[in-house]
Structure formats: C-alpha cells, structure tokens
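User: Let's play a game. I give you a shape written as tokens, and you guess the letters that built it. Ready? Here's round one.
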C-alpha cells in the first residue's frame, strides 16, 4: 500500500508512559567538545559564545558577536547548544582523548549530564559517534528541538552510533521535540541510536512530533543495561503529536524487561513506530496523506469500533 490517503485512526490502548524529565541545570556538561574544540571552557566569564569553523567543522573559533555568515553554533555556557546550518566533523587526534566524536558532552565526576540541542536550518554531525552524551557516574539526557533538521552519522563500529546517550550511574534519556532527526551507522554490528543506562535504571526514547529515523546493521535503536549489557532496566519508546519513529534494522535490547512502546498519556495524539519493516500506530493519530509503506513493510491499525 503506497501513497495511502488515510484520515484519523483511533487505536486500542497502548502502554502509557511518563514524559521524560530532563536533568537539572547543574548537570550541564563538564566538557563539551564540538569537533575537536572544547566549547565549555572559554575566555568569557560565563563561557557563552558563538563559534565558527574554517576547516569543515573540526576546529572552532569563538566570538561574542553573532557571526555575519550563515553557518555557526552558539553555546549558552549552561546546557544549551544551538546549531545554525552547521556542519560538524570529529577527527581523531592522539593528543586529545575526547577527539573523534562529532559532539561529545561529558559530566563532571560523580555527576549526571544533560545537554539540549536547538536546531536552526539544516545541520549535519559526524564522527566515531555523531553525538555522544556521557555520564561516568550519573544519569545522562539529551534533548533535541527547534525549527531545523539534524543528520548524524557514526563512522566507528560496534559501540559507536549516530547518537549515543550513556548514563553509567543512572538512567539514559533521549527526547526529540517536533524536529526531523536521522541517526545512522551502517558499519558492521553498529546501530543508529544506542541508549545505555545502569543495570536497573530505565532507558527512554521520547519523540513528540517530527520524524526520527535510526538506521544500523545491528539495530536501528539499541538498548543496553549495565556494563555487562544484561541488566533489568526498562527500555521504552514513547510517541506523541503524530510523531513517526523508523528503526531501520529494528529495535533491540539486552534487558530482562520487555521493550515498552506506546503513546504518551499526557498528549491527545500518539504516533507510529516502525520496528524494522513492521509499523504500529499507537494512540489517536492523524496519518499524513503522503505516508508511504515500502515493499515488504506492513502497518498495523487497531481500529476501535
């Protein structure tokens, strides 16, 4: 069924999952590398600055005034990074232990870490992992929103991804609000998105509007719990506001708890989740007229009579 013109569909009850709550402001990144430059440490009193790159997005130079060009980033010195038509490229440098990633945010020792990315225009990020938000001892959270789009690519294998959120001492949260995001790593045994939390802590993906496409040979979206990858935390996918999640390569986890997929109970609209070639509508959804179901794909509608 291609180009199906479908209106409003009411579907059966789905698991009701909580809205993601981001970490507090004091969980801002201890270091925040964009390409090979730590933009969390500057000559400015509050560490807030605009940044531009002249080498394709690997090294960045700061300034206080908004750049006259149309490609730049801005960091507010707290927890919000704005990308404005930015191209970011991580390259490995043996003298910099944090190099190789497109964007790398790490929390202070013993602390959680939270990063918010605001999108303006068209943005691309690539590196071993495109975006890596990492807490050694606490929870980790990443929120992406704005008015633009984002394409992330991981070029490393196995543990590298388009997006990684890893909370070694707590939960891992990825929230996408009404923007289009792609996260890709097509290397052998890699995944588009990797969410890793502590043994019994939750790992949550929340998509509120927009479209998320995650692609990988190992999995589109992968959940890992604890250092052994076999903990009992709960992996969840929550959709709302007619969001579409496409996990090309499927959704997989190593937890003893089943993956919970459903609509957000606090929102009037749900969304669609594609787990490989199988799509399911969750909640009350208005399907786009140009929605296309590809060869070998199927979409399940549980219509309430």
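Assistant: Ready! My guess for every position:
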């Amino acid at each position: 069924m291609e180009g199906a013109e479908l209106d409003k569909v009411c579907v059966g009850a789905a698991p009701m999952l909580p809205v993601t709550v981001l970490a507090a402001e004091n969980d801002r990144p201890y270091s925040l590398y964009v390409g090979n430059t730590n933009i969390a440490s500057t000559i400015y009193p509050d560490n807030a600055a605009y940044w531009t790159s002249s080498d394709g997005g690997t090294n960045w130079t700061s300034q206080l005034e908004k750049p006259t060009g149309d490609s730049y980033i801005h960091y507010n010195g707290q927890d919000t990074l704005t990308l404005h038509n930015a191209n970011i490229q991580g390259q490995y440098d043996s003298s910099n232990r944090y190099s190789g990633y497109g964007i790398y945010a790490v929390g202070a020792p013993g602390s959680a870490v939270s990063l918010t990315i605001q999108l303006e225009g068209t943005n691309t990020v690539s590196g071993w992992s495109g975006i890596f938000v990492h807490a050694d001892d606490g929870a980790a959270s990443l929120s992406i929103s704005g008015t633009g789009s984002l394409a992330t690519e991981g070029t490393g294998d196995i543990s590298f991804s388009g997006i990684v959120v890893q909370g070694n001492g707590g939960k891992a949260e990825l929230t996408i609000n009404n923007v289009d995001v792609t996260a890709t790593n097509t290397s052998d045994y890699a995944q588009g998105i990797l969410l890793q939390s502590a043994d019994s802590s939750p790992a949550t993906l929340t998509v509120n509007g927009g479209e998320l496409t995650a692609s990988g040979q190992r999995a589109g979206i992968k959940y890992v719990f604890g250092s052994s990858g076999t903990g009992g935390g709960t992996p969840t996918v929550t959709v709302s506001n007619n969001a579409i999640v496409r996990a090309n390569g499927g959704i997989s986890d190593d937890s003893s708890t089943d993956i919970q997929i459903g609509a957000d109970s606090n929102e009037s609209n749900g969304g669609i989740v594609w787990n490989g070639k199988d799509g399911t509508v969750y909640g009350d959804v208005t399907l786009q007229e140009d929605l296309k179901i590809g060869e070998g794909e199927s979409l399940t509608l549980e219509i309430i009579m």
